[in-house]
Design brief:
Helix content is 52%, strand content 7%. The strands form three sheets. Strands 8-7-6-9-10-15-14-11-12-13 form a ten-stranded mixed beta sheet, with helices on both faces. Residues 795-935, 995-1094 form the SLC12A transporter C-terminal domain. It holds the Pfam family AA_permease.
Length: 1094
């Protein structure tokens, strides 16, 4: 059990756990918790991890109240008084409800007809398949039900807690719809018994003309059905307790009826009942419209024609014109129930499927065919009312085996649910399967085939066919079945709304929330209304034979998922899967699942597809709405197993070049509030990834983990929230480390798992690298660059990240410019291609520039490059830019000098405040002078200088910043190509400054200033000058071509081997990218990432 407590790492995911009766309960007395000092060692954690003794005590008192499928009962406890519910055992609590729910309307109204139509053998197969299906499901269900305490709410709870909210919701709603339609089916059965067998005169619609009987019957069903549903809804609304009191009466009816059937069968062995059937030739006649089964009668030596004659002939005279078939064939009378000893079983073994409207005929009776042009309508034959075939019968029969969940739905009221549910359910299924299978054989052995096929018992005076077999009277069965179907209907109408309420209260399907409310005592009023409404749909369909397959679908769906749940849990060997019920195996569950699926498609493939579509939609909807329920379900386990399997399959070696894609580690900076400083970095990530590949978003907090634990959590929540907003799919990893640098190093080394490691690091350029107290100072940055190289990972540095586009922006035009200076694996080519997959960059064109030196043949280079791109299958413009060797300009020289002076100065600057001011003043003046002389006046930088002069307290960084500004003032100017000699005036300027310094020094007589003499006498380092030359030249060329590009990708030069030059390295990069809006510096990992081969 996880406690959702104050422990920092655990339970902080913000997901409310399933309320557990054992941990963190409010009633626990804090006072007497620490009485014994034996456990002093553990007392600090007592509130989150209680003592074992108190836990056991709680377990013993844990009751599962019937009312309530409320997930968190904590808030209800105060309102609810402990009710001592009389606890039920296996027999009363599980066996009888299951028996009552399984035996129902189909047994009485349709089973004889199924036997007659499909024959004993095929009916046996149908029943056996359906019973096997429910038995396998019951085994799976028992395993799930005995795995932990089953809360009230039965099957829905079992499935949702073991398969997860998505499946739980889909199955729960399927089960709900199934139960609701079952209610409709029972009501239709009730009316059929009432109007056909109890009181045919009660029909509102009478058949005006011949052949309209079916239509009239359906309309009667609709009218009566609607009335009964309103009546039943009122009964359920007024009080469920009455329904439950009547349950026993209804159950008694069912059991009596079945006993009556068996008694009748035994009686037929020695004294078959007298139910004569009238046959004309081999055609069965309906006895509703005549009484004597003969063409004419002899009385007083006088031959009189019978009623039957008048039905077939145009007058009652002996010389009247009669129906052809009537004239040619004799009328015979045979016994409808020859009895079990008569050997009629042999005739009934085989099927007799027929078209709609055909006449029910006896197979081996002699018959002379007449001319078939006469119309059959109006003649008193027994016609079939629907077309029959094997699969259709499966659909009609299946609902008679449903109802196996009845016991588990009452799980809250059982003494020992874990023992009762398996025993009761399996026993009930065995009993009912025995009853069904024996009934099939007995019906086939006792009753004449034509009566079996006669759905409404027309050949036996409109008696219920099963009733004719029963002893002592047909009325036992008629009344019994009437009450039992009534009761079943009522129970469906009480059960379904509760199920819906349970689903609604779980809150996984948001639009169902309304149905969670009810009356003060928890009766689901709104759910009842909806249920009655859906029932009404079933009643408007009006034909029992059409409603049955619909309901079969929903139940089969539900059973399929129960089997799936059991199979998945067993195969995954989830640690929590330890059912008390031991007689299950995943093969059985799997077989059950396959059987359910097969039966769905056997019944009716289009209904099956519709039912699956509904379930699929619900599943997707719940997934889309984000079911934030953590129920520790099996599907979560399945994903974990699949992930582990896939990770082990992903070989540890580097992937093939074709499969290489940037798997990013994004290094984010957080501010003091743990919010992300540069959210655009994540926008850029999602644009680069478009949801594919791996993204790890990492960040480092400085400090000790034990102290910073809550902050780390808060940071993780913030980052995850931002990832959600920016649609960045990936993982978040926050590391707490005493030193910022080490933390980044840990991330680079250890983020990811197995084959799912990052191969590219994305970070933002440290804008304020010149401020030494900034934690991401240049040292950290340069070290990170070195570390990615050591780890053989590519590095992307986004400069001016805050100018990058959001995911909502769309560039309608523009270029992505690639400056390909050195080849380091082709990252530069791949990135623009990946970026252009995203909507933001889709309209941009890709241009590739490369640099030609003096001795290169630039025309040939261009051709080669175009060929290379053609093979890479990339569309891009190609341009070769020539850079001629020329002398190093004074500007470069001065820039290098300034850079080196700055480093020296920062080292030596320990001046008092006044001198610092004057110091800066002099540098600023000098900077101004040089700017003016070159006439690059950039008002911005002068403004900054001026602002700096207004403040009193100067820090080292500000001096640095000023020098930097004076460097950046060369913003828009291309390098001036002058000879070194041109640098002389600068030197004069410098000397002038120096003299000014000396003068100041004389004024102040301070020893510190002497350091500045050296600074201003420095000669710049030769290699630095060369490097700066490259930077300045390249910057000029890039600006010339790509100043207005939407994005510029550049090769990032590596840091110097010698660590002393790190700061100068930053300056070179700064100069290289000066004046460009959005820059991505790319450093390859040294392996090929793009290939021309397929």
């Amino acid at each position: 059990w996880t406690s959702y407590g104050e422990k920092c790492p655990g339970g902080g995911d913000g997901v409310a756990r399933e309320s557990s009766p054992f941990i963190n309960s409010a009633e626990m007395d804090r006072g007497n918790m620490y009485e014994g000092k034996n456990m002093a060692l553990f007392e600090e954690e007592m509130d989150s991890n209680p003592m074992v003794s108190s836990l056991l005590n709680k377990l013993a008192n844990y009751t599962n109240l019937t009312q309530g499928v409320v997930e968190h009962e904590a808030d209800e406890d105060s309102k609810r008084k402990e009710v001592k519910v009389p606890r039920m055992g296996t027999f009363i609590g599980v066996y009888l409800p299951c028996l009552q729910n399984i035996l129902g309307v189909i047994l009485f109204l349709r089973l004889t007809w199924i036997v007659g139509t499909a024959g004993v053998l095929e009916s046996f197969i149908i029943v056996f398949m359906c019973c096997a299906c429910t038995m396998l499901t019951a085994i799976s269900m028992s395993a799930i039900a005995t795995n932990g305490v089953v809360p009230a709410g039965g099957s829905y709870y079992m499935i949702s807690r073991s398969l997860g909210p998505e499946f739980g919701g889909a199955v729960g709603l399927c089960f709900y719809l199934g139960t609701t339609f079952a209610g409709a089916m029972y009501i239709l059965g009730t009316i059929e018994i009432l109007l056909t067998y109890i009181s045919p005169s009660a029909a509102i619609f009478k058949a005006e003309e011949v052949g309209e009987e079916t239509e009239a019957m359906l309309n009667n069903m609709r009218v009566y059905g609607t009335c009964i549903i309103i009546l039943m809804a009122i009964v359920v609304f007024v009080g469920v307790k009455y329904v439950n009191k009547l349950a026993l009466v209804f159950l008694a009816c069912v059991i009596l009826s079945i006993i009556a059937i068996y008694a009748g069968v035994i009686k037929t062995a020695f004294d078959p009942p007298d139910f004569p059937i009238c046959l004309l030739g081999n055609r069965t006649l309906s006895k509703r419209s005549f009484d004597v089964c003969a063409k004419f009668t002899e009385s007083n030596n006088e031959t009189k024609t019978t009623t039957l004659w008048r039905l077939f002939c145009d007058s009652s005279l002996l010389n009247a014109t009669c129906d052809d078939y009537f004239s040619l064939n004799n009328v015979t009378e045979i016994q409808g129930i020859p009895g079990i000893m008569s050997g009629v079983l042999a005739d009934n073994l085989w099927s007799a499927y027929s078209e709609k409207g055909s006449i029910v005929e006896k197979k081996d009776q002699p018959s002379v065919a007449g001319s078939e042009d006469t119309k059959m309508g109006g003649l008193p034959y027994v016609f079939t009312d629907i077309m029959t075939y094997f699969t259709m019968l499966v659909g009609i029969y299946f609902p008679s085996v449903t109802g196996i969940m009845a016991g588990s739905n009452r799980s809250g009221d059982l003494k020992d649910a874990q023992k009762s549910i398996p025993t009761g359910t399996i026993l009930a299924i065995s009993t009912t399967s025995f009853i069904y299978l024996s009934c099939i054989v007995l019906f086939g052995a006792c009753i004449e085939g034509v009566i079996l096929r006669d759905k409404f018992g027309e050949a036996v005076d409109g008696n219920l066919v099963v009733g004719t077999l029963a002893w002592p009277s047909p009325w036992v069965i008629v009344i019994g079945s009437f009450f039992s179907t009534c009761g079943a209907g009522l129970q469906s109408l009480t059960g379904a709304p509760r199920l819906l309420q349970a689903i609604a209260r779980d809150g996984i399907v948001p639009f169902l929330q309304v149905f969670g409310h009810g009356k003060a005592n928890g009766e689901p009023t709104w759910a009842l209304l909806l249920t009655a409404g859906i029932c009404e749909i079933g009643i408007l369909i009006a034909s029992l034979d059409s409603v049955a397959p619909i309901l079969s679908m929903f139940f089969l769906m539900c059973y399929m998922f129960v089997n799936l749940a059991c199979a998945v849990q067993t195969l995954l060997r989830t640690p929590n899967w330890r059912p008390r019920f031991k007689y299950y195996h995943w093969t059985l569950s799997f077989l059950g699942m396959s059987l359910c699926l097969a039966l769905m498609f056997i019944c009716s493939w289009y209904y099956a597809l519709i039912a699956m579509l509904i379930a699929g939609c619900i599943y997707k909807y719940i997934e889309y709405r984000g079911a934030e329920k953590e129920w520790g379900d099996g599907i979560r386990g399945l994903s974990l197993n699949a992930a582990r399997y896939a990770l082990l399959r992903v070989e540890d070696g580097p992937p093939h070049t074709k499969n290489w894609r940037p798997q990013l580690l994004v290094l984010l900076n957080l501010d003091s509030e743990q919010l992300v400083k540069h959210p655009r970095l994540l926008s850029f990530t999602s644009q680069l990834k478009a949801g594919k590949g791996l993204t790890i978003v990492g960040s480092v907090l400085q400090g000790i983990y034990l102290d910073k634990c809550t902050e780390a959590q808060k940071a993780e929540e913030n980052v995850k929230a931002l990832m959600g907003v920016e649609k960045t799919k990936g993982f978040c990893q926050i590391v707490v480390s005493p030193h910022f640098r080490d933390g980044i190093s840990y991330l680079i080394q250890s983020a990811g798992l197995g084959g799912m490691k990052h191969n590219t690091v994305l970070m933002a350029w440290p804008q304020s690298w010149k401020q030494t107290e900034n934690r991401f100072s240049w040292k950290n940055f340069v070290d990170t660059v070195r570390e990615t190289t050591a780890a053989q990972q590519a590095l992307l540095v986004a400069k001016n990240i805050d100018l990058f586009p959001t995911n909502q922006e769309r560039f309608t035009e523009g270029n992505i410019d690639v400056w390909w200076i050195v080849h380091d694996g082709g990252m530069l080519m791949l990135l623009p291609f990946l970026l252009r997959q995203h909507k933001v960059w889709r309209k941009c064109k890709m241009r590739i520039f490369t640099v030609a030196q003096m001795d290169d043949n630039s025309i040939q280079m261009k051709k080669d490059l175009q060929m290379f791109l053609y093979h890479l299958r990339l569309n891009a413009e190609v341009e070769v830019v020539e850079m001629f060797e020329n002398d190093i300009s004074a500007f470069t020289y001065e820039k290098t000098l300034m850079m080196e002076q700055r480093s020296q100065m920062l080292k030596q600057m320990q001046l008092s405040k006044n001198e610092r001011e004057r110091e800066i003043q002099s540098i600023t003046d000098e900077s101004r002078g040089s700017i003016r002389r070159k006439s690059f006046s950039s008002p911005q930088s002068i403004g900054q200088d001026a602002q700096a002069l207004l403040t009193n307290d100067y820090r080292e960084e500000e001096v640095a910043q000023l020098i930097h500004d004076r460097n950046t003032a060369s913003h828009s100017a291309p390098a001036i190509k002058a000879s070194v000699a041109a640098a002389v005036p600068e030197k004069v300027q410098m000397t002038w400054t120096k003299e000014k310094f000396v003068a100041e020094k004389h004024k102040n007589k301070d020893s510190n200033v002497s350091g500045f003499k050296d600074i201003f006498n420095m000669k710049p380092n030769q290699s630095n000058v060369r490097r700066m030359h490259t930077a300045v030249k390249l910057n000029g060329v890039v600006l010339n071509k790509s100043q207005h590009a939407q994005l510029v990708l550049l090769n990032m030069p590596g840091p110097p081997k010698n660590r002393k030059g790190d700061e100068n390295y930053m300056e070179f990069l700064e100069v290289l990218t000066e004046g460009l809006d959005r820059v991505l510096l790319v450093r390859g990992s040294g392996r090929e990432v793009i290939t021309i081969y397929s």
